[in-house]
């Protein structure tokens, strides 16, 4: 990208991070009362809300019902004011339909689906502000919401993106770095077993560099896992403290 | 709205509570009391103005985006405002897909009717070059949780977001026959909107023989009919709409209008007070958004 140096000679990125540093992550569980589980996450300037309903009986057409496992239903939408230029529709465009499919695929792999046959779990993700890494923030928020709803998961699901600039892999890329046209790798892993549940690469990247970028992205996922785990433990201890004092 | 069915006994309980001599609603409020309200402005940084309102369980996020556009032929010398409401599936699974569209259109039409009045918002100040360029304010309301009284909450959120809106200053240079617009580089060189006469919606729900404000979701289930009105700080009514399957007496409509006016005035002034107080704390204030 002309005029913009994504990685300076001193090793700093546009927003002042080093190549291996994530953006600041802040999150909260139990944002809403009506949903069975809900969570909010901020990754830098990307802000995402997720809500989980279920498991409940299959709504709508019964043809969708699965006899041997739970039906995971996702919806990804972006607030019309979330992007720099106003969006016309919050959902239903090609990009968000694709994102919905990706989320469904990811959580089908992570939820222990055989526990709830003939039922449905809804995962609704709403992007309030987008600044790159929307998919990653959505996955991380949805994981927290699923944990808040008490739905059995194989493991946390953590997603992280990585790019490749000046022969250096950079982790958790922002919108500016995404739109630079360089390669982008999105990885979702189950951190304990290090299994990859979702992998996507945009643009061109030399095969020799793939493992380097993949390593950086998985390292980012594990860092995110540590943050999410701490948030969950904080939340649970807070909730149990309240329960103890009211007893 | 949300998929709750209340039994006859439960409905009667609510009805009797309101009919009693000392009106007492299920949550202990009087007939003219609002529930606890929390408001914060400037929560979405890539908008021109934004606000988040939480009214008990109702959660609303409003974003205002100012974009350059062409004024409408009917009003060539003023800007435009456009309302868009999105009912997020986060609020209830019923809103998934296109499920929330009906409610969303209903809210956005009531809002636009409330603001469709030259006294409510000075749209002329949004005009840059008559017939050619003006600011279009896209006011997007995102409904995140339904806890009753969505219309009032949406309008309060909209007013707060408009208060928070900052529109970049533009200068028009005329070169020969061509007009050139120059946006100011300074992010602090902005114009604010005057919202002192913008309306807030007050909904009065008729339950039994009485009417209450700020009906909760349960009360909305027992409500026969409701009257919505856009009330400004001066007590003028900018829009009026009756809704619901029940019918209303002409007398009770006037009764409700009187109550609505009174409450709307208090609501408007206290909202403005809260917004001004928040503004005074200036840059020291940390936005909490959904993190609290």
From TrEMBL, chain A:
GO terms for cellular component: cytoplasmic exosome (RNase complex); nuclear exosome (RNase complex); nucleolus; nucleoplasm. GO terms for molecular function: RNA binding. Pfam families: RNase_PH, RNase_PH_C. Signal peptide: none annotated. GO terms for biological process: nuclear mRNA surveillance; poly(A)-dependent snoRNA 3'-end processing; rRNA catabolic process; rRNA processing; U4 snRNA 3'-end processing. Keywords: Acetylation, Cytoplasm, Nucleus, RNA-binding, rRNA processing. Residues 21-152, 155-220 form the Exoribonuclease phosphorolytic domain. Belongs to the RNase PH family. Component of the RNA exosome core complex (Exo-9), composed of EXOSC1, EXOSC2, EXOSC3, EXOSC4, EXOSC5, EXOSC6, EXOSC7, EXOSC8 and EXOSC9; within the complex interacts with EXOSC2, EXOSC7 and EXOSC9. The catalytically inactive RNA exosome core complex (Exo-9) associates with the catalytic subunit EXOSC10/RRP6. Exo-9 may associate with DIS3 to form the nucleolar exosome complex, or DIS3L to form the cytoplasmic exosome complex. This is Exosome complex component RRP41. It comes from Patella caerulea.
From TrEMBL, chain B:
One of its GO terms (molecular function) is mRNA 3'-UTR AU-rich region binding. The keyword Transmembrane helix does not apply. SUPFAM superfamilies: Ribonuclease PH domain 2-like, Ribosomal protein S5 domain 2-like. CDD domains: RNase_PH_RRP42 (cd11367). One of its GO terms (biological process) is U1 snRNA 3'-end processing. Keywords: Acetylation, Cytoplasm, Exosome, Nucleus, RNA-binding, rRNA processing. InterPro entries: ExoRNase_PH_dom1 (IPR001247), ExoRNase_PH_dom2 (IPR015847), ExoRNase_PH_dom2_sf (IPR036345), Exosome_comp_Rrp42_subfam (IPR050590), PNPase/RNase_PH_dom_sf (IPR027408), Ribosomal_Su5_D2-typ_SF (IPR020568). It holds the Pfam family RNase_PH. It is found in: Cytoplasm; Nucleus, Nucleolus. GO terms for cellular component: cytoplasmic exosome (RNase complex); nuclear exosome (RNase complex); nucleolus. Residues 34-168, 199-262 form the Exoribonuclease phosphorolytic domain. Belongs to the RNase PH family. Component of the RNA exosome core complex (Exo-9), composed of EXOSC1, EXOSC2, EXOSC3, EXOSC4, EXOSC5, EXOSC6, EXOSC7, EXOSC8 and EXOSC9; within the complex interacts with EXOSC2 and EXOSC4. The catalytically inactive RNA exosome core complex (Exo-9) associates with the catalytic subunit EXOSC10/RRP6. Exo-9 may associate with DIS3 to form the nucleolar exosome complex, or DIS3L to form the cytoplasmic exosome complex. Exo-9 is formed by a hexameric base ring consisting of the heterodimers EXOSC4-EXOSC9, EXOSC5-EXOSC8 and EXOSC6-EXOSC7, and a cap ring consisting of EXOSC1, EXOSC2 and EXOSC3. This is Exosome component 7.
